[in-house]
Amino acid sequence: MKPISRLLAGTALAAVASVASAADIVDTAVSAGQFKTLVTALKAADLVDTLKGEGPFTVFAPTDEAFAKLPAASLDALLKDKEKLSAVLTYHVVSGKVMAADVKPGSVKTVQGQPLTVSTKSGSVMVNNAKVLKTDIDASNGVIHVIDAVLLPK
């Protein structure tokens, strides 16, 4: 019986260790499976290492469906313009780890420099004109909130 109890104890410790070391924002986005275009864009803009960094970051992450709402030619052009792509992507990022319970309506400064407007509309939380679909996807270096549109800076 002792080998079985040791095995169970070892399994429990391994499970605790894996929970303690949650994936970073990029790895969390990759494993979610609904952010393939976002991850491709992060690679094209050389922002993967930044979002794998210490942080903490809050990312308003557009789904693949959100990117599909952009005209194909616009998305292709954006993916080829590293500077513009970087500006769009960093417009989706706020410094610090802001959980849904801590979000207040108003203006929030992005890493890109321009503010986002957080509001409520018909019972939904909005970031500019994007609806927040899911909140508080925890990562080791921040949090992801899923949105239904790509946010474009002015």
Walk me through what this model shows.
The protein has 154 residues and is an alpha+beta fold. The protein has one domain (2-147): FAS1 domain (Roll), CATH 2.30.180.10. It contains seven helices and seven strands; from the N terminus they run ααααβαααββββββ. The protein has helices spanning 2-20, 25-32, 36-44, 48-51, 64-68, 72-80, 82-90; strands spanning 57-62, 93-95, 106-109, 115-121, 124-127, 130-139, 142-147. Strands 2-1-7-6-5-4-3 form a seven-stranded mixed sheet. A hairpin with a 2-residue loop joins strand 4 and strand 5 (124-127). Helix 3 packs across helix 7 (82-90). It is globular and about 35 Å long. The termini are far apart. Mean pLDDT is 87; it is low at 1-20.
Q: Might you state the CATH topology name?
A: FAS1 domain
Main sheet, how many strands, which sense, barrel?
A: 7 strands, mixed
Count of helix runs: 7
Distance between the termini: 67 Å
Could you state the CATH homologous superfamily? FAS1 domain
Q: What fraction of the residues are assigned to beta strands by DSSP?
A: 25-35%
Order of strands across the biggest sheet? 2-1-7-6-5-4-3
Q: What is the residue-mean pLDDT, rounded to a whole number?
A: 87
The best one-word shape is globular
| Architecture per CATH nomenclature, i.e. the level-2 architecture | Roll
Order of helices and strands: HHHHEHHHEEEEEE
The number of domains is 1
The count of β-strands is 7
